[in-house]
Amino acid sequence: MLRLPRFSYLRPDSVAEAARMLADHGGRAMLMAGGTDVLPKMKRRQMAPEVLIGLSHLRELREARTLPDGRLELGAGVTLAAVQDAGSTPRAYAQAARLVSSPALRNVGTIGGNLCLDTRCNYYDRSEEWREAIGFCLKTGGEACLVAASSPRCWAVSSADTPPVAVALGATAVLVGPDGEREVPVASLYRDDGIAYLAKEPTEVLSHLRLPAPETWRSSYVKLRRRSSLDFPLAGAAVALQLDGRRVERCRLVLGAVASHPVEVPAVASLLEGRELDDEAIVEAAAEAAKPAKPLDNTDASYVWRKRMVKVIVERALRDAAALA
Fold it and tell me: Which residues on adjacent β-strands are paired with residue 183?
């Protein structure tokens, strides 16, 4: 049986106090809301914080409201289950939330936790004894990335479902630090680095996600995985369209689970904008989208097959979003 290491638990009275606690404890502290990812990784000693700062009790993180400009503001502590069937949630975001893990974990897991989800890898998501037996990987103190041994960086993959959708929709995130708060595009939260995958400051707390009104974009999210529940994505495609009849006025396409960060494909927008969204255009766009997808042998299934399947899920996402018009 894997057991949790010893740690102290702090219960802040506000998000601002949680940020101050992070600053006070430096790299020894971590935030925890639902704990569906943090606690199993602590048991496997992938993470070993001395202090956990709890967020799930904070009311300000569990509320949703419509802003004066029509955007939907979701507290980072809102559960995935709460948004998966909400009529006020953009369609693709609700789809992505509904496809995360299983119903039991969606009842606990939060949108903030999914946005900040740690990267994954076959050589990383193992018990400490297993990782020690192979000499540890770069992400857990080893000397090389075991996926690409000659590379100086870690290639662990971004496997969260909601970030690609949030990026495609042009969503923004509110970050609260010891010196105040700031609003940034969700796209700016991620780095192409399996270890330092988040670009926010270590002392900042993700407090809210701001999404466009549901009618702003025609959107869809398609997820590729081995089983119909529980599994992380082998690839994901999030598409957001603004259409005039069948003509594309604006388009954003973002891929998930094919790199260490969500991969936006602007070439698809260049190909489709101003064009009728017919079968020929969709097939061309799907082929274009697969070009920047470079999956490696770090998750389930063959990386060659995963690359080929990117075209399939992009085509399905485009057809699904276009059908809404």
Answer: 174
- pTM for this model (two decimals): 0.96
What one-character DSSP code corresponds to residue 150?
T
Q: Which of 12, 224, 256, 1 is nearest to 117 (CA)?
A: 256
Q: Which domains does the chain have, with CATH numbers?
A: 59-116+157-323 (3.30.390.50)
Contact between 108 and 38 under an 8 Å Cβ cutoff? The reply is: no
Residue 83 exposure: Cα atoms within 13 Å on the Cβ side: 35
Residue showing tokens 């799930």: 56
Over residues 125-166, the pLDDT tens digits come to: 999 999 999 999 999 999 999 999 999 999 999 999 999 999
| 153 Cα distance to chain centroid | 20
On whether the CB atoms of residues 31 and 18 are closer than 8 A, the answer is yes
Alpha-carbon torsion (321, 158, 133, 303), positive or negative: positive
User: Nearest 5°: CA angle at 168, between 69 and 178?
Assistant: 65
